[in-house]
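WARN retry 2 of 3 for item q-0093 after timeout on previous attempt; input resubmitted unchanged.
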Amino acid sequence: MAVAVSGPTVSAAPARPVSARHFVRLKLRVMGNNFRGQAWRVALFVGGAVFGLWFAGTGFFLFAAPGLAGESRYALMVAAFGGGLTVLGWLLLPLVFFGVDETLDPARFALLPLSRRTLVTGLFAAAFVSVPTIAVLLALCGLVVTAGSLGGWSAAVVALVGVVAGLLLCVAAARAVTSAFATALRSRRVRDLAAVLLAVLAALIGPLQLLGVAALGDADWDRLDGVAEVVGWTPFGAPWTAGIDMAEGRLWAAPVKLLITAATIVALLAWWSRSLESAMVGAASAGPVRAQRGTTGGAVAQLFPRAVGWARRDRFGALVAREARYWWRDARRRANLITVAVVGLFVPVMVNLGGSGFTVDSAEGFNASLDPSPLLSSVSMLFVGLLAAVTVANQFGFDGSAYAANVVAGVSGQQELRARMAAFSLYVLPMLVVISVVVGVVLGEPGWIGLMAGTLFATYGAGLAVNCFVSVLGAYSLPETSNPFALNTGAGIAKSFLTLLAMLATAVAAVPMVVAAGLLGDVWLWLALPLGAAYGLGAALLGAYLAGDVLDRRMPELLATVTPRR
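OK item q-0093 returned
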């Protein structure tokens, strides 16, 4: 006999649609987890937040200065040039130094039933939950004070809308450019032309600053007013100058500039959406694989690139071959190599041609005289050498969980570090030679090539020694994504502090080269190259020896640190 059981019907609650607030809550949860890690990482995050607040306060008073001083003449220039440099920084600096926060890796959402619009808006909203974004917003609020002081509350409201719109523009530009550039770098068959062009644009930040100093010293305010007006009608200056136009009575200009900003944001988000989707589904093809020509030496020999054909077929040679191949094929590493090549060439040229020649005279005004010297050349080369060496400050972070293979194989710390130095130097040392020759020819001083090369080699070797310790003791994980400019939450702050620490230590270690250039005069032109090369080689080997022992003791901890968290 069947028994019928009746009861209340239980229906499943309808699932809530995913919106931007879910991404923001997830980002806040991830940021909160930073305070549960190691004490020094928590200290770095807190220190970065304090530095961000200091930056915000300084920027706020700079942008508010024209309004507080009642100088309406300078308000438009400060808004146009200051805001334009802010947008330019958000465009280029992530490609060169800091990267973008990709804690919420888009690739992890590829298999979820999320529309493209939901994903873009959610990631876009989560991007604002970061220390740099909040600091920039607070700094730019100084424009609201300027507009309110000059034009009342209506101008302040328009300026506030412009600041918010400008911040949206900055974040959208950073995301769109890095995502599109990451897609291009991911393909092994794509030439690095786009990478070089963007790195050149980033390297032009320094020359633009020098030109700005020259323009301010020349004090041609009428010309600067005209340039500021032109910049104010571009996306670089439109959101920041809308409130100033309102304060000066140009009521029609404010809504037009806000429309220009809105249209630019929409275009950037559309661009980001297309590149983001292709990155998630792996649309970029690696291209057809060419057949290997010849089989001489067997399969093992084919694993060694031509650049390391000299290496012995043993454990050390295999490590060198592996690192050399990764430095060219890994998008993150390749982007760093391009940055070193371009910035390392532009900085010494600009410093030697303009750094020492800028003078201010009460009678003649602002003058620029080309007066390079061996001492100044040594200082500029010191910067290039430490910039090249600091690239390996997180060399184990590039490997991530793949470093477990070396741990299991029992590779000694000294052998590991020496092999990584050798592979990285295969790319960097030719760059340093080219930089020395080019700068010497541009300056018209070919006799200084040995001086420059010696300083570069010494600084580079000392920097490798310093960064061996930094890479072992201060490593951090990188997100598993095809974007070479992606960083986890808090990693950008850690990277900036560790980079600064490594550069300062390298500069101290390389100071003897600069002192010798200033004291020995022409004699040092002959001694700099051999002594600098010997100093750099000895420092690098000593650093590998000392840091290798530390690595042997910290292999398990280092592997756990560089393994990305899921």
